[in-house]
């Protein structure tokens, strides 16, 4: 490994933002990109969100794709760091993609609305982070508005998400009385002026809180800050980088994204503390980013901008070595060599052809249906990265063909779309139904539209009384047989042959789990 390679790995930060809709993810993303000098892109983030809000029908999504493909990965530089921000769709198009993106990041940023505390979608995304012990930094947003008491928000995070909080900044008042933050990480005071940007260099260095300048600057709120900090020293956890890197502690910043307040303060700490690309697990061994041979895995597949080409882009995260344009790599699942001639790297402003990419970077590979989620590409050794799962669907539909002569096309379409990871396909044990499962409902519209345009299939959906699913397994063959027999009506095979239990409610599922202690019920399933 060359010195340069090590340097390139160490200066990379690949992360995603987790939040509930409206907490301020789009606003924060824009501000982050502005610091990275990616100004054009910032406009596109907003445009994308506007398009999403306008309508959620598939046609407009097609038009919107131009933006959405490029903004799936946003690359920018900050100080000496090269940052890859992976978009985690969190709105109407909330889907498995959102979850899977989190398998390709080294850390995450959690945005919380100070008036709302922890909300449902944040909780779900956090579950995925926990599976991989992803380190999480927290930004508590909208301090320019009245909200919950800062200590109550921290308690909420600790309780609901089971992660220790370590405040690195502390707010001085909120809403109309919001005066700024005291940065505990750097011992600096930043004063808030609504509508005006505050850069970290504008902050006043105050090592000692008894400094009378504090009273001059904050008036009566100086004493409030002193009391708060004293209280924190006794009650809050000190920041421990190791705890953070293990995913047990989240450093917390306060601010207001829309006013660009506290954002750069957090970004500064983020690039310093967040992990560089981490080793990745394969079936055979752990792969270090510092290794010379190239390797990477596909975590997302997205329909391309040009529907006429039916071309899709596979998003590959580089895990080791250096990617060079035109290099020949092995596509292990199908045992073929492919030349990555026209891979795309995702730059902030534009999609440009990649010359070189390093671990932590994401490249886009054009794909005519041969690439599946979870596929590994490498230049020598046969590897198979693990930890890129399917997630238990929460929405279900039965597909009914309008023209029964098209059964073959339907089967082919559903099989391919399921392989691509766009939806999960289940075939019940007791009948020949096609049941689709998805994490977000919008996925169903996408599938119907693609069935029609790409496979010429006219079909419709019927509601079906399932609300949740688990993949099932058992060491004891006899017991498993018994379980299968008794629960036939609720069992189905997924597209890779995995057996799943579909339940009409969480309560039903819980009841079955209780009744069958020998059976293991999995919420996720690895791709073969
Ligand atoms: P997303 O849904 O998480 O991407 O959230 P957005 O970034 O679109 O923000 C949702 C709403 O909150 C928008 O109306 C923003 O203008 C507003 N917002 C974002 N940040 C702040 C903030 O710091 N203070 C206030 N008062 N509003 C904010």
UniProtKB/TrEMBL annotation:
It is found in: Cytoplasm. Pfam families: EF-G_D2, GTP_EFTU, RF3_C. GO terms for molecular function: GTP binding; GTPase activity; translation release factor activity, codon nonspecific; translation release factor activity, codon specific. It comes from the Bacteria. Residues 10-278 form the Tr-type G domain. GTP binds at residues 19-26, 87-91, 141-144. CDD domains: RF3, RF3_II, RF3_III. One of its GO terms (biological process) is regulation of translational termination. Keywords: Cytoplasm, GTP-binding, Nucleotide-binding, Protein biosynthesis. One of its GO terms (cellular component) is cytosol. Its main location: cytoplasm. InterPro entries: EF-G-like_DII, EFG_III/V, G_TR_CS, P-loop_NTPase, PrfC, RF3_C, RF3_dom_3_sf, RF3_GTP-bd. The keyword Disulfide bond does not apply. Increases the formation of ribosomal termination complexes and stimulates activities of RF-1 and RF-2. It binds guanine nucleotides and has strong preference for UGA stop codons. It may interact directly with the ribosome. The stimulation of RF-1 and RF-2 is significantly reduced by GTP and GDP, but not by GMP. HAMAP family: Rel_fac_3 (MF_00072). Belongs to the TRAFAC class translation factor GTPase superfamily. Classic translation factor GTPase family. PrfC subfamily. PANTHER family: PEPTIDE CHAIN RELEASE FACTOR RF3. This is Peptide chain release factor 3. It comes from Syntrophotalea acetylenivorans. The lineage of its organism: Bacteria, Pseudomonadati, Thermodesulfobacteriota, Desulfuromonadia, Desulfuromonadales. The gene is prfC.
